[in-house]
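Lab notebook page, bench 4
Experiment: in silico fold of construct C2
Operator: M.H.
Input chain length: 268 residues
Purpose: comparison with the prior construct
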Amino acid sequence: MIVTAGLRWSSASRTDIGRVRALNEDACLDLPHQGLWAVADGMGGHTAGDLASQAIVRALGTLGTLGTPGAPGASNSLAAIKRAARDTLQTVNQQLREEAARRRVRVIGSTVAVLMASGRECAWLWAGDSRLYLYRDAHLEPLTTDHSHVAELRAQGHLSAEAARHHPSQHLITRAVGAANWLDLDEGHIAVCDGDCFLLCSDGLSNEVQAADIARALEGGDCQLAADTLVDMALQAGGRDNITAVVIRVEDPDAADHTLVNPAVVSP
């Protein structure tokens, strides 16, 4: 747990190879002391997906040199951290393009979703179909939209949510680190509240576990228990892909009325 700007941040992560794949091409970053979390999912069916995802989280991990969030003298404004993350991902994108050319393969790539915290705000960047969710006031809200062929079909009204879950093109993504000469990232930001829970996950989780079940796993507020429960549910549902979950929770000790994520879960 780390305290920044009066807020207490805690997190936990888990990744699993799943029940079908021979290699885990997911990678994650879980650095609450740096206010930095990420999930990267190497592109299945392409060369060295694990190399791509690991390169992303390794490079993002160096952003800690900006300084611990809230520390005196740290260059830790959210704008600065986000700008550094963008630059870092563009550099990795170029490195993966060069490595693909060196190996004479078409693509070495990975999705990415990264969450950054500074002060009492969060920002995020993403490319691909790894997701970020916010669980607040007993409501689960996706903060990212998939960059995928199926998501485009849904947006056009051609597919229902259930049909999208089982569509044969559900793994066809339209953006990824390493997929093009320029990496197109989307972004968002919010002010955080006492009791907020965030979930970063790969599609091996979101394709197997329904939103209502994700919400139930997060409602207790225990990051490690939630991460383990979510991965176990994805495995029980078939585990057809690598599975990664990073769960982050923020508490405000000075809040007038502390948020009870689930009123039934109260410590004695």
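Observations: Residues 67-75, 261-268 have pLDDT under 50 and may be disordered. The first strand starts at residue 2 and ends at 4.
Next step: discuss at group meeting.
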